[in-house]
Structure prediction request, 507 residues.
Amino acid sequence: MIMKSLRSRRSWALAAALTVVGAGLTGCGGSDSDSTGSSRTAPVRALLAAQPATLDPIVGARSAQIVWATMLEPLINTGGDLAPTDTGLLTGWTRTDPTTWTFTVRPGISFSNGEQADAAAVANTITLTRDNPASQLKSYFGNVTAIEAPDATTVVLKTKTPQYDIPDLLTTVYLVPPKYYQEKGSEGFAAAPVGTGPYVWSGANAGRDISVKRNPDYWGTKATNEGVTFTWANEAAQRLALIQSKSVDVSFDLPPAQASAAKSAGVEVVSTETAMKIIAFLDSTKAPFDDPKLREAAALAIDRDAIVKGIFDGQAVSDAGLLNVKPGQQPTQSVTADAARAKELVGGAKPTVQITYPAAQYTNIEEVSQAVGGSLEKAGFTVSYVPLDYGTLVKRIVGRQVPGLSIFAGVPNVAVPDYFVSGFMKTKSITGNCPDPQIDTLAQQALEQNDAQQAAPLYEQLNTIGVVQKHCYVPLYRQVFNYATAPGVSGVVFGPLNTVDFTKTTR
Prediction:
């Protein structure tokens, strides 16, 4: 009876998803021309694994940027090596003294609502990012003491102490219009975002789809399609079925089994090793992991290689480090699984552990959480599971309301180690799960170096303290991201920092 009911729900969900896609996107391709004579194609139908929690880039997790980044732009673009480039809204920067950065703003840019995207707008966005209590990036800008716009194309940013990675951080700060954002507030802005990007807001059906359309006044190279409509389906089987039936043009986040099935059916599948890594966070401020011995036991019990092999069939990359943020990097020191030693450390105490994870947010996250829990149980822990929607999990983490062990992704939208140090390791970080004055001191020292090369040894030391010595973090694996495109669809550009460019997509 339970299985029959489950099948019924899944069948209904698939039918509903098909209905949404069909209702939201009629028409089957073709192209026409705009008033300038340039060819463009019909809207792209993109299928996501989950509905974005919010489209406000100030307070939203970066997993939703696949949608908002069609309309909004980062202050600084990145190149193929993930380093800042001068091709975006900010076209140049100089470090005029150890604590002062001066940025040049591209002139003549407007938001789609007519507001000027000038230096004042840039300064306002950075200020919101630093000062908004709910800002996802608040901890990264705590060292910034002043943000000024002396003229329309100049922003001067001052820091309390030297900080070498300010331009890197601005690659994940998305420009918002000051007046509109203040008038609408976070929820109002998220309901109809306004930016400077290649697309503009077109509308949404609550809980069903979100649409953007081509921005005819975009300052850069205009999109080759009319727009993008985003729908979502939590179950991988639905995402596979919808791409196979050609009901969508691109289906994101296909687990290994569905990716293999899609390939067997002749569907084109692209696999990319990303910078996103799945991490188990142990809260050292609450029982049971306020006991260092039990943190070590948990770290030794979890076998990341077994997870990659057993759950992903090798279609993920075992990753033993926290601060090795670029694909292909590994730390100099790491923890190797040792089930016998883990059991010895736990002894006969049978400590209780709560495992919290974001249901349906990441590929095979349910199976990964169960595998982690099974390893802990073999070591002698008593395990309970708390699946939450992603938005709720983030709020509870920020509110220090997640005891035990939590599993979620670290996404280095900025390819510098401090993105994880400030986000996860410092006392005043997002997670706050491993407060330690030594970590705070080393993190500050690393930022005060002249450049990334000089800071590298300090970040290796930080990684060793957090992962190998204190066992506050158990890195698991780096995600290999699979997405499938329907026949005739081309030009989807997926980057290792989990960004997607739809502007060249045709169907």
User: Anything to note?
Assistant: Residues 317 and 490 are 27 Å apart (CA to CA). Confidence is low (pLDDT under 50) at residues 1-30. The chain has 15 helices and 21 strands.
